[in-house]
Amino acid sequence: MSTINRKGPIIDPGVCRCCGCLKKCRIINIEYEWQGQKEIYSDMFMDCFGLLLSHLEGGPEERLICATCVSRLREACAFRKQVLRCEELLLSAKIHLDNDVEESKEGIKADIKIESIVENEVVEEDHNNEAVLIPDSNNEPDVNSKKKSSVKKDKVLKRKRKTKVTVNKEKHELVTRMQKVKKLKDADVPEQKGNAKTKNTNDNEMMARHNTICIVENSYVCPFDTSFSDYFCIYCRKQFTDPNKLREHTMTHDPQIYKDLPQKKTLQIDILRIDCRLCTQRIDNIDDLKRHITSIHHKVLYPNIDNEFLKFRLTPVRLICTECDESFTFFHALKKHMAEHFGTCICDICGAHYFQERMLILHQKTHQKTDENYPCKECGKLFKSKHNRYLHIARTHKKEPAYPCTKCDEVLFSYTLRYRHMIEVHGIERLFECEQCDRTYDSRKSLREHNRRFHLKIFKHQCDLCDKRFYLPSRLKEHIASHSGERNFRCEYCGKSYPRLRGLKVHMQSHSTEKKYKCTLCSASFTQNVNLKNHIKRQHQTMEEYHE
């Protein structure tokens, strides 16, 4: 069966011609899109390994490749690019070394030439001075003439030194200008057309990106990406929930790969550890790092460029804003707060800050009082967005999955199923520990609900007949039944009724499970330990007092 999605056609099932497995496959010589880039796998084989694959003109079943092999091919191509880049750097360094040697030889020749010119001037001036001298009658040299000659020699020598300093200074300025030109070429930012304001904006973005690349390559800062409160490696998109593991994993990548990544508007960088990569200097501040790598290691950074990226100090427990020291429990809340400091897209109505204009546009729609709805053509149900309508049609009417996996070609029917798929199939670690107790959960939502319910004790639902409060409205509804005496939850096996659903569920266990809690004083047995304790208190209380 062949399906087409926004990334390209998928053949399910198909036999991969690279590993021979029966999986969901892609066609090896058709263009696909991955992370905003176009890729044709047959061309990647040719570029990376020099392999000209056969049978590319046959049917689709003869030219298939699975997602696992595609991932390995991408890694091989990335490694090839890394090797070529390092080779290019080595060759450029050799060329610069040869150029420096040639420049030094030319400088020595120039110095020798200058010295010879100066010596000729000195000899010529001395000769002229001697020609003017008139000896006295006693054939004794004129003392004043010798003094004048020595003064002129000193002036010529000073002029010689000044000439040398000027030549060296000009040579240094020339080398500096060449380095700046090389850095601008390495930035590889295409020139954009437009008015002066657009050009200045593009120049600032280019300089900010150049500074960011230099900082990432020469320090231990950790660039990363996020989706709500989950962290992603910016190089390979591996997902983490623990920032310590994210930092350990990022250290396995070559930081020079960052310059080849697609440009992002708001790069996020963890600055828990900064330190210089080029030496053993320990550095705790980005400004100190900039001064260090420019003055000590002679790196080129553009001055007066602020906010090249968003700075965070990622910790497993509490997250602190680097600007105002306000603390947050989840990264999503911290990033939303950071927009108040650095967000340039501001709502004219309420003053809310955003990093991206599209997010501001979505926010501004909330201020517009509109009754625009998107009806389903099949059943007439109304939705507030086209995306919700699309999910409804896919799940209800077409019976098609609509949640694609980011790691493979699997598409699932719900967010929950995709979440479980990521844990079970791809082994993504999902472990969130409570700070207040030893409970752990597999999602941030469950941890948040636990904190609100058991530690913060946020009980918004209060009974009108008494002072009791509840976390969930369903619990309040069950509680109200205790005031009215209603017992609406009846057992279908024995007819016993209960005022709360929870009580009925506990009772139902007595019909379906083994009664492993047995009373030592009689033959009664129970499915739960709490029921055994209640039994002992009611039936054997006098016996307990007797034993005491």
UniProtKB/TrEMBL annotation:
GO terms for cellular component: nucleus. Residues 14-93 form the ZAD domain. This is Gastrula zinc finger protein XlCGF26.1-like. Residues 146-163 have a biased composition (Basic residues). Zn(2+) binds at C16, C19, C66, C69. Keywords: Metal-binding, Nucleus, Repeat, Zinc, Zinc-finger. It comes from the Eukaryota. The gene is LOC106114998.
